[in-house]
Design brief:
This protein has 9 helices and 13 strands. By secondary structure, it is α+β, with helices and mostly antiparallel strands.
């Protein structure tokens, strides 16, 4: 009998919740994000107390950070003592450090769905927690992104009607012939062999194009191909279109230099990130190792407004580099989809390059 008043009180509390409070969330799909570090994020459909639905996109690391914050605020103490603001939180699936990223993300879906169901089934006062509300809030970036697929929202018995279409006239399509072999340095870049014909999709910026060949799609430098039929003008304006980083398929480019005793190797690294993104030090270090194929100890550096080469050591230094780059953006003319900062990669023990001019 004692549980009945509590149940009625909880139902009354629920009825008084604001309409924008999330009450359920389900993972609809996963999407690969090709940024400074390639990772998978979960496409989630959220339902609110008021009956609205929307999609959000979250990484596992965001689940982990949310759970850590909630544990600090709401978990019972070491002695198991409970208080007015404590409750038993659901168990979050642990981190996985080794394995195929896609398989790890797919295997996490049932566990994360259970976690969200139990989290949003906690007492109503927990649902008002700012961390929970912000985690399930649809940001501007969420609302502008178009999902590539929503496999898990479709009924399993759905029948898809096949529509026959006329085969595209390949000779009318924008295309280019590969003049020099090109080996892509990441998943975004399209490896090509001389003599292949690349069908052009769009221009990324003044130097890079996006195209497809043999069921493979990616970006590549225009200097490696000979244009047979150019892109229409509307698809060639890479300086204005696709530079905002919003939506699927948009790229931003980072100018990088590898400084060695033999000279300077310059690369434009394109990532599926907005130019306002601030990557972590570890992400940049891993990406530069992959881009320049170096196995030894390397150091990351940038040039400050005075022209001096400054070494990066942690995330705080990255934040200073990004801030300096943004401050100098009006003084240094770059394409609108190019990051306002550049990286200079050196051997970790090499200090002589600090007087090298690029």
């Amino acid at each position: 009998m004692s549980s009945l008043p509590k149940q009625l009180r909880d139902e009354s509390d629920f009825d008084q919740l604001p309409h924008d409070i999330p009450i359920s969330a389900t993972i609809a799909d996963i999407e690969e994000k090709k940024g400074f570090i390639d990772y998978y994020r979960f496409v989630m459909e959220v339902r609110t107390r008021g009956g609205s639905k929307y999609l959000i996109y979250r990484r596992y690391s965001q689940f982990f950070n949310l759970h850590s914050d909630l544990e600090l605020k709401h978990s019972p103490g070491d002695q198991g003592t409970s208080g007015p603001n404590t409750c038993r939180l659901p168990t979050l699936p642990g981190k996985v450090f080794i394995g195929n990223k896609k398989e790890i993300a797919e295997n996490r879906i049932p566990e994360l769905n259970t976690y969200m169901k139990r989290l949003l089934g906690l007492p109503t006062w927990v649902l008002l927690d700012d961390d929970i509300r912000m985690f399930f809030y649809q940001t501007e970036s969420d609302s502008q992104h178009q999902p590539r697929a929503l496999r898990r929202l479709r009924p399993p018995t759905r029948r898809v009607k096949t529509v026959k279409t006329n085969q595209t006239d390949v000779f009318s399509s924008p295309r280019a012939e590969v003049v020099f072999d090109f080996s892509g340095s990441g998943r975004l870049e399209l490896s090509m062999k001389a003599g292949e014909v690349i069908f052009l999709l769009r221009r990324v910026n003044t130097d890079w194009l996006e195209g497809t060949v043999s069921n493979r799609t990616g970006i590549f430098p225009e200097s490696f191909v000979k244009i047979i039929k150019p892109l229409p003008e509307s698809d060639s304006d890479g300086e204005s279109g696709g530079a905002s980083g919003k939506g699927a398929g948009s790229y931003s480019c980072l100018r990088c230099y590898l400084l060695t005793p033999q000279g300077v190797d310059t690369r434009d690294v394109c990532v599926e990130e907005d130019i306002s993104t601030q990557p972590s030090y570890k992400e940049l270090l891993a990406r530069m190792r992959d881009v320049f194929k170096v196995d030894g100890n390397i150091a990351l550096n940038y040039r400050d407004p005075e022209g001096d080469l400054v070494r990066l050591l942690d995330d705080g230094d990255v934040a200073l580099m990004v801030a300096d780059g943004r401050a100098q953006r009006s003084k240094v003319k770059r394409p609108v989809n190019q990051f306002p900062w550049e990286l200079h990669v050196t051997a970790a023990s090499d200090l002589s390059v600090y007087n090298t001019e690029i």
